[in-house]
Design brief:
About 30% of the residues lie in helices and about 20% in strands. It has a five-stranded antiparallel beta sheet with strand order 4-5-8-6-7. A four-stranded antiparallel beta sheet has the order 9-10-11-12. By secondary structure, the protein is α+β, with helices and mostly antiparallel strands. Helix 12 packs antiparallel against helix 13. The structure holds flavin-adenine dinucleotide (FAD). Flavin-adenine dinucleotide binds next to strand 2, helix 2, helix 6, helix 7 and strand 8.
């Protein structure tokens, strides 16, 4: 049985209270929301914080409601709450679908949207017990200086493996972060960086307070498709989010596709407007976009499933998402 390392558990009720605790304990503290990723990682000794600062009692991190020209989703809202919320389902069905496809029901009841956005990257050589990692000689992301995926190079290539950020990016969502210096808003599409060790622009002691989605994005046709080994519980091997603004007759005004599960950050597929703008999304356009995605995606051997097969699945899942979008 894997046991947790010892830690002290703090339950502040305000964002300032949580920031105060993070300031007091410095690098010895970590935030925990649902704990569905952090707690297993602590059991694997990937993190051993002496203090856990829980976000579950912080009221400001709750609530899903329209505010002005956007829908705000508190970062501590559970994935189940997001997936079943009538406003989310009506306005942003792709987000409801993505939240509803994370892991399994129990994990969605505890896991939060904020935790999903801030999820640590994953790799075959990282998400293992301490004993396993030690036997291999550690790895670049934790305790070592070798990347077992690339064998060369100093860059960690652990995979971004969260389902909701690609959808949030296509919906032009932003993130409200609170830190010791105050608050700032950052677009989801600018939040991630290509570094498997620290793949977001969130500072260690910043708290994600809310996710903001412009109501204007509700006019987009949206879809989401996920490749995984089993139909429940599994992390994505590939996630595809697509969104398009279309005229009444179906002519594309703008279209975007974002994939993840391959590299260290969600990838915005390029050149889609050049292919589809001014055209109806017929089978020919769908095929052109799918093969374009295939040319752009080159998965690495960073998660357990064969990278060549995952690459072959890219056009399949892009096609599925686009056909769903067309039918939306
Ligand atoms: C068996 C299994 C299957 C899974 N399958 C999937 C899957 O299919 N798709 C998927 O996307 N995920 C999956 N997960 C991972 C996880 O359940 C979800 O990503 C979940 O949304 C994480 O949210 P949480 O609240 O539990 O985060 P936590 O585990 O509490 O935190 C995760 C990270 O985010 C940080 N954090 C959390 N909230 C905030 C905040 N408000 N501000 C700043 N930092 C914060 C924490 O410090 C930690 O580093 C799976 C997990 C397990 C155990």
């Amino acid at each position: 049985m894997l046991r947790l390392p010892p830690f002290r558990y703090h339950r502040p009720s305000t964002v300032d209270g949580a920031l105060g605790l993070l300031g007091e304990f410095g690098d010895d503290a970590m935030l925990v929301a649902g704990g569905t990723d952090l707690i297993p990682n602590m059991k694997h000794r990937l993190f051993e914080p002496a203090h856990l600062v829980a976000l579950r009692d912080v009221d400001e991190l709750r609530g899903i409601r329209e505010e002005g020209d956007r829908l705000r989703v508190g970062a501590a809202e559970t994935l189940s709450a997001v997936a079943s919320n009538p406003d989310v389902s009506r306005l942003f069905p792709a987000l409801a679908a993505a939240a509803g496809h994370v892991a399994g029901p129990q994990l969605r009841n505890a896991g939060t949207l904020g935790g999903n956005v801030c999820l640590d990257t994953r790799c075959t050589y990282y998400n293992q017990t301490r004993f396993w990692r030690e036997a291999l000689g550690w790895c670049l992301k934790k305790d070592g200086d070798v990347c077992h995926v690339t064998k060369v190079g100093r860059k960690c290539v652990a995979a971004h493996s969260a389902d909701t950020p690609p959808v949030l990016a296509t919906l032009d969502a932003t993130l409200l972060l609170a830190g010791p210096e105050g608050r700032r808003e950052l677009a989801v599409r600018d939040f991630f960086v290509a570094d498997g060790i620290a793949n977001t622009r969130r500072q260690p002691h910043e708290i994600l307070v809310e996710i903001r989605i412009p109501l204007a994005s509700a006019r987009l046709r949206q879809a989401y498709a996920k490749l995984r080994q089993r139909k429940a519980i599994d992390f994505p091997l590939l996630t595809v989010a697509v969104a398009a603004e279309c005229e009444d007759d179906g002519t594309v005004v703008r279209i975007e596709g974002v994939v993840t599960g391959l590299g260290s950050r969600p990838r915005i597929l390029t050149g889609w407007d050049e292919v589809a703008e001014g055209r109806v999304l017929d089978d020919e356009v769908v095929e052109e976009l799918a093969s374009r995605a295939h040319r752009q995606c080159h998965p690495l051997d960073n998660i357990i499933v064969d990278p060549e097969w995952r690459r072959a699945m890219v056009p399949v899942y892009v096609r599925r998402a686009l056909l769903d979008l067309r039918a939306a």
